[in-house]
Amino acid sequence: MDIVYTIWLRSVKRYLRSKSRIIGSLGMPLFLMLVLGFGLDSVVQIPGMEEGYMDFIIPGIVAMSVLFTSVFSGIQIIWDKQFGFLKATLVAPVSRLEIMIGQTLGGATAAVIQGLILMVLVLLIGLHPVSIAGFLIAVGFMALIGVTFTALGIAIASRMEDMHGFQLIMNFIVFVIFGLSGALFPIDGLPDYIRPLTLADPLTYGVEGIRYGLSGIAQVHPFTCLAVMASCAVLMIVVGAYLFRKIQS
Amino acid sequence: MTRSSASPQTTNPTPAIEVCNLTKSFGNFVAVDNISFSIARGEIFGLLGPNGAGKTTTISMLSTIQKPTSGTAMINGHDVVAEEDAVRKSIGIVFQDQSLDEELTAYENMDFHGRLYRIPGEVRRKRIGELLALVGLEDRKDDFVKTYSGGMRRRLEIARGLLHEPKVLFLDEPTLGLDPQTRNHLWEYIARLNEEKGITIILTTHYMEEADRLCDRIAIIDHGAIVVLDTAENLKNSIGGDVVTITSPDPDAIAGLLTAPWVSSIEQHDGLVTIHLQEADRHIPGIVTAIHQNGIGITSLSVRKPTLEDVFLHYTGRTIREGGATGKEAMRMIYRARGG
User: Fold this and answer.
1) Is the predicted pLDDT of residue B58 greater than 80, yes or no?
2) What ipTM goes with this model?
3) What is the distance between the alpha carbons of residues A54 and B86, in angstroms, rounded to a whole number?
4) CATH level 3 topology of B240-305
């Protein structure tokens, strides 16, 4: 546990110190929220939801922010590899599982903090406040998204030589995960050939979970969301830990 | 400068490091070829060779970073494959490439390391303070490592390597890329460490002077194999008493000319003829006369005692500086970069 804490602590410290990263990562979600939220608010009518489109996509955008931050945190292992720091860690008498779990929890923590900053900003823009319980449910789902996708980032980083493949991963994995999830559109209205893809995307359940917490309305039952997200988190930790075991420093 | 104390190898029954037929290959390529040696406790042992000779691969296997293809190695009585964790607890390592977290302060880097080795808080804080003072970084301990110079980073890495009080310290090219003054400083520091704390030190280098000055014994390693292993003094004595070097427009002719029995060996290289012989002062007139009689010019001539450079040239047929220039060795570098 000490070791997990040690790795976690370093990870979180690094995140909190990278002010430009924290602020820079807020740009895209805020932009999407303003453009899509305000821009389409009067046009789009979500069936079964009396609030506007803005309220509908806020959970989706929060989930996106958590997703991006966590994948990025996981992939940062490549920098540790390139700067030699990973080698110094791997030669210490600690198990790789401990290192991997510490890194995952650190990345998830950073991702949740990033999501919370965004939520606070959203409150300023005008989201109506939610109940404490609802807020905690949302944070819980953010944490599960964080763990799942930091572990995915670590799994990818374990197989990558350097940062050259980074754009490839962002475009073909992260954007696809985000795009297919129900972050920006309701699942119920989808054509039959896209619906299965959306339902196969783990982020869909994370988004729906956060949406349930923030607005009390979700198209997937919150328990289903919890079961799927929790399973995905466990599965990705197992896959990530397996691949990280074989990492070459 | 060389410390001429004889190796204490035979006095201690369990050596600090015992390597037996260690081999590492990548596909068809053999990076480390069946090497064996033993290092006594408290010894400073040098692996000297050109870039890509297999030094770092050897260190990687001894420090459990890479698994040997065959052969065994024991560190502090523990097998590097079967008892990975015990080996890791016994060793400290300073890598060839920097391995600090630049976004953390010096103190935080040390603290991170101390926690990884499960050193209790009280002891950890005390030791970090002592070690940072020892390497002269006390007053900069709360500065980010990214603001540090190369020499300061090196010193911090050495301090970090000592934090868990290892029995054996690996230094992979400890002074690579440092200016001469810092290098001197580090040498003094390493020698003092070895004397005061009795830590066994194994270092790799391609600086002759470094090996000469610091190491009790030196293994010259080339193309993955140990060519020769002895004290610096014995190595230098082994190639004959004096060295005469002649530069000439026609080195081949000179090499062919000097066949007298008092010439122990003769090598020519880049227009430079190197002659190893006993009692050079007596034979120089003879050498000069012989060359002149054959109508060959001499650009310059010098006489000196042999250095490790000559030893290296003698045993490998190349100077250490041109090591790494051949295609084969470039391959070795690539494999090493990939493998570890």
Assistant:
1) yes
2) 0.88
3) 58
4) Alpha-Beta Plaits (3.30.70)
